[in-house]
C-alpha cells in the first residue's frame, strides 16, 4: 500500500526490516527509489501504480547492497540509475560467474525464495559530478557521500523537501559503517555534516529502513547517529536505544558488538 508523505511523494514499506521504497511523481510517470524486496511486494506495487495510471519511468538505487538493487519486470524496462561508484561496485560483483551464490549468502533465509535475482543491480552509473537526476519530474538532487557503502547517495526532492536517505538516518538501525573503507569513522561523520548542512531544506526524511520522520526528527537522528559514531571513535558507553537492552530489533545489539570489535581492533584491514 502506498502512503503519501508529501506532495507527489509516496512510500511503500516492506515486511523485511521496514524497508522503504519511495515513489516520486513526475510528468509522465514515477521514479522508483530502492524498489523493494520480495516479488509479491513489487508486483503489488506495480499493480497500485498501474491503477493510478502512473507507469514507472526511471529507477534509482541509493547504494550497492542487494536490498536496494532489486527490480521486477512489471516495472518495465526503463533507465535505472545509481552513482558511478555504486554502479562500478555492483558491476564488479556481477562480473563474477558465481555472483548469485555470493549475493545469496547475504539474503535473509526467511525471504530468500521470494527475492527475484534476475534483474538485480542492472543500473547505469551517472557521471561522477551529476548534481541532478536525469528525469522528467521535479528536481531530484543527488547527495553522494561515503559512509555506509561505496557510492552511497541520498536524494533530495527539492520542491517538497523530501530527503530519501538510503541506509542513513534510521530510527531502528544504528549506523552501519563501511568496514572496507580506509577511514570509516571520519567518512561517516563527514556524511552527517553534509546532512546537517541540508537540514534547513528538509521537511521529510525517508530512511531505507525504519519510519518516515519530519524536520525535527531529522535533526535528532543526525545527533543520535553522530553520538553513536563518536562513541565508536572515542570509546565509552553507548547510550543508544537501538542497541540497548530494549532494542526494537533483537539481533541488532549483536551486530553492534561485532561492529565495535571490528572498528576498535588494532590492524584493522
Ligand atoms: Zn538496506
Observed structural traits:
12 strands; alpha/beta; 6 helices; binds zinc ion; 5-stranded mixed sheet
Q: What features would you describe in this structure?
A:
This protein is α/β, with parallel strands linked by helices. Helix content is 29%, strand content 17%. It is built from six helices and twelve strands. The protein has helices at 39-51, 84-95, 99-104, 184-198, 215-234, 252-264; strands spanning 3-6, 9-13, 20-25, 30-33, 56-60, 80-82, 124-125, 140-144, 153-157, 162-164, 204-206, 213-214. It has a seven-stranded mixed β-sheet. β8 (140-144) and β9 form a beta hairpin. α4 runs antiparallel to α5 (215-234). The radius of gyration is 18 Å and the shape is globular. The termini are far apart. Zinc ion (ZN) binds at residues 65, 67-68, 167, 208-209.
Largest sheet: 7 strands, mixed
> Please, what is the average pLDDT?
95
Shape: globular
User: Strand-and-helix sequence, N→C?
Assistant: EEEEHEEHHEEEEHEEHH
Number of strands: 12
**Distinct ligands, ions and cofactors found in the model:** zinc ion
Rg value: 18 Å
Distance between the termini: 43 Å
Q: Per DSSP, what share of the residues sits in E-state strands of 2 or more residues?
A: 15-25%
How are strands sequenced across the largest beta sheet? 1-2-3-4-5-6-7
Number of helices: 6
- Helix fraction, binned, reads 25-40%
- Judged by helices, strands and strand pairing, the structural class is alpha/beta
| Low-confidence runs of at least 5 consecutive residues | none
Amino acid at each position: 500500500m502506498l502512503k503519501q508523505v508529501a506532495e507527489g511523494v509516496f512510500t511503500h514499506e516492506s515486511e523485511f526490516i521496514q524497508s522503504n521504497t519511495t515513489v516520486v511523481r513526475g510528468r509522465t510517470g514515477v521514479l522508483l527509489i530502492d524498489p523493494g524486496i520480495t516479488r509479491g511486494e513489487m508486483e503489488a506495487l506495480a499493480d497500485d501504480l498501474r491503477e493510478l495510471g502512473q507507469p514507472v519511468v526511471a529507477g534509482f538505487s541509493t547504494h550497492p547492497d542487494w536490498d536496494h538493487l532489486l527490480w521486477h519486470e512489471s516495472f518495465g524496462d526503463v533507465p535505472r540509475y545509481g552513482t558511478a561508484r555504486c554502479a562500478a561496485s555492483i558491476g564488479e560483483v556481477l562480473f563474477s560467474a558465481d555472483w548469485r551464490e555470493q549475493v545469496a549468502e547475504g539474503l535473509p533465509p526467511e525471504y530468500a525464495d521470494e527475492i527475484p535475482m534476475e534483474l538485480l543491480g542492472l543500473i547505469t552509473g551517472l557521471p561522477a559530478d551529476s548534481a541532478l537526476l536525469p528525469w522528467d519530474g521535479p528536481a531530484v538532487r543527488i547527495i553522494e557521500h561515503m559512509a555506509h557503502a561505496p557510492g552511497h547517495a541520498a536524494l533530495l526532492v527539492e520542491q517538497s523537501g523530501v530527503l530519501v536517505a538510503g541506509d542513513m538516518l534510521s530510527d531502528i538501525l544504528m549506523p552501519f559503517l563501511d568496514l572496507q573503507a580506509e577511514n570509516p569513522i571520519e567518512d561517516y561523520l563527514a556524511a552527517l555534516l553534509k546532512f546537517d548542512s541540508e537540514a534547513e531544506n528538509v521537511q521529510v526524511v525517508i530512511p531505507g529502513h525504519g519510519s518516515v520522520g519530519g524536520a525535527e526528527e531529522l535533526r535528532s537522528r543526525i545527533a543520535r547517529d553522530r553520538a553513536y559514531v563518536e562513541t565508536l571513535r572515542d570509546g565509552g558507553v553507548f547510550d543508544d536505544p537501538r542497541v540497548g537492552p530494549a532494542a526494537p530489533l533483537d539481533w541488532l545489539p549483536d551486530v553492534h558488538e561485532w561492529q565495535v570489535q571490528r572498528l576498535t581492533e588494532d590492524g584493522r584491514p
